[in-house]
Amino acid sequence: MSIYRPTVASVVYKRTGSERFYAMVQKPNWDAHEWGIIQGAFEVDSDRNHKDTARREPREELGTLLFGQCINTRISVQRPFQQKTRERYPDQGYAGKEVHYFGLEFIGEESDIRLSDELSAVCFVTQEELLARIKYADELPPVLTRIEEERAGERCGSIYIPGFNLTRAQPALGR
Q1: Which option is the CATH number for 4-161: 3.90.79.10, 3.20.20.70, 3.90.226.10, 3.40.120.10?
Q2: pLDDT value at residue 174
Q3: Which helix (H) or strand (E) holds 140?
Q4: HSE toward the beta carbon, residue 141, CA cutoff 13 A
Q5: Which residues contact 113 (CB under 8 A, 6 or more apart)?
């Protein structure tokens, strides 16, 4: 067994005109000031790949199927569990998570969202507010950049971040 649990983080966003807003979520057992993005474990029995998990988790947690393009940022981060996490979830059996980041466009209205029991709140905020308020915000700038690059048609190399070792985007061939 790996010491890091395979996990997928879905950066859910919606566009309103030329602006982009990002979903941040709270779980019932989190403190009032704690916000994050949708994450879930890769399930070997039901998920063929990480992209399946990136689509499944927001559908389950937000209670809607209204999603568009799913972008594999090819960015992953190994993150040890903090003490607070180990106390909240004592039977994890892992030292931390290996988080694989995806971008997922929400194409519905906020009124289409039906929160599951796993979440207590969701709100859509600007990129600046997202980066100011969520846990592990230091991991997101290259993820958000990669989502934009992929939407713009650039092909990007893989990034593995045990300590933020990033590669540069390269233009797609044949486009």
Answers
A1: 3.90.79.10
A2: 33
A3: helix 140-151
A4: 5
A5: 62, 63, 64, 122
Query: Which pLDDT score is estimated for 164?
Result: 41
Q: Would you state the structure tokens that stand for residue 43, as one six-digit string?
A: 């399930």
Q: Which two tokens stand for residue 168?
A: 């540069």
Instruction: Please report, for residues 75, 145, 153, 155, the alpha-carbon distance to residue 173 in angstroms, rounded to integers and kept in the order given.
Output: 21, 20, 10, 8
The model carries a pTM of 0.81
> Residues 60, 72: contact at Cβ < 8 Å?
no
Residue of 59, 161, 167 whose CA lies nearest to 100: 161
Task: List, run by run, the mean pLDDT of 10-residue segments along the chain (175 residues).
Answer: 84 93 95 93 77 94 95 92 75 83 96 96 97 93 92 54 39 33
Tell me how crowded residue 3 is: count the other CB atoms within 10 A of its CB: 11
Q: What residue segments make up the domains of the chain, in order of their start?
A: 4-161
* 103 SS3 class: strand
